[in-house]
Amino acid sequence: MKANMSSTRSSRSSSVISIILAVVLVGLPIPSSSTNRHVINFRSPGLYPEGLAYDPSGQHFIVGSLHSRTIHSVSDAGVIQTIVSDPDLPENATILGLAVDSTNRRLLAAIHSAAPLPPFSALAAYDLRSGGRRIFLSPLPSLPGDDEDIARDVANDVAVDYKGNAYVTNSAKNFIWKVDRDGAASIFSRSPVFNSQPVAADADAGFRDCGLNGIVYISKGYLLVVQSNTGKMFKVDEETGTARLVLLNGDLVAADGMARKRRDGTILVVSQKKLWFLKSQDSWSEGVIYDETDLDVEGFATAVTVAGQDRIYVLYGRVVEGIMGNYKEGEARELFGIEEVSSEKESGEDKIWLYVLIGFGFAYFCIWRFQMKKLITNMDKKTS
Ligand SMILES: *[C@@H]1O[C@H](CO)[C@@H](O)[C@H](O)[C@H]1NC(C)=O
User: Fold this and answer.
1) Which of 67, 68, 91, 120 to mutate to test the pocket of ligand 1 (most atoms within 8 A of CB)?
2) Taking a C-beta distance cutoff of 8 angstroms, is the pair 93, 69 a contact?
3) 233 with 366, same domain?
4) Residue 94: how many CB atoms within 10 A of its CB?
5) Where, by residue number, does the polypeptide cross the bilayer (predicted)?
6) Rounded Cα–Cα distance for residues 263 and 204 (Å)
7) 187 & 260 share domain
8) Which of 53, 243, 299, 321 would suit a FRET pair with 221, their CA atoms being 20 to 30 Å apart?
């Protein structure tokens, strides 16, 4: 009789466990680990893309090209299609930073011609609704008195606000241009703070002369920008262009592209070697680098983007190999990659997952206690 009773009890509690387990397994996102990261390989001979953006309407990535005056979409599965082919750009010009203006369904591209090509720095806007028709191609003005043949501007990266204004970094001269929705370009911010920081001691020739680089627009009326050769970050007022140094717990040496996770405001900064994860509690007077992930150095990551709300991807465009051009005619690289990167420390979802799990554990404990109580009362009744 006693044995019989205990077996009923254990079968009942095990069925409760399986129900709870089923709920846990079906109802909750499985935390992603580094082993099931999404890797996209795509094929395009000699592309060597530097810029990367994500177009939420088209649900695909967008990449530029080192010398072919083209911009392409890349699907989740690695299918590549040409969305812009613009023969009005100077021959062999490079597409650098890219930004999608979701409000106006436009694509903005920073265009630059490196030496020995004639100097050229511009911002181009293309209409994503009409298959990539160009809206404007605006040359970016040099500082008064600057001789472009001696030291040329470098239009490097671009961010866009909700009104369609674009902000373009000049990595050679450490200032920021603004290009309005109609394509009118001006010098927007040339704060002295951009020239106030020492070049990092370990800055090598690859980025020693590269100043302001990655830029993101924050909806609260300011921009964040990083500087490659000093590893510093600046907060720039959207109205006045005044800039302040953001206090960080480390330097982002060789920082290149930037992106922002809309869900929680995490800022991502990429370099050839790593991806940094940053957060701030006070609208970026101070920030903290709370995690970093090592990247494939050979892939030479130059850009980072966020797909959807929170999937982070870097572009392995192997640009330096393309710039060196030391491959034989017809032997340019064909394969490039876009790879998902995650931080073990930053996944807020894991925490929710943990809380829910604890909640379930507590619920299970209550059910178990309730049953035990019933059982003991029953047993008491029987024995008495
Ligand atoms: C563009 O690149 C091609 C291939 O390297 C070269 O043959 C051509 O001369 C270049 N054009 C200019 C204007 O430099």
Assistant:
1) 91
2) yes
3) no
4) 27
5) 352-370
6) 35
7) yes
8) 53
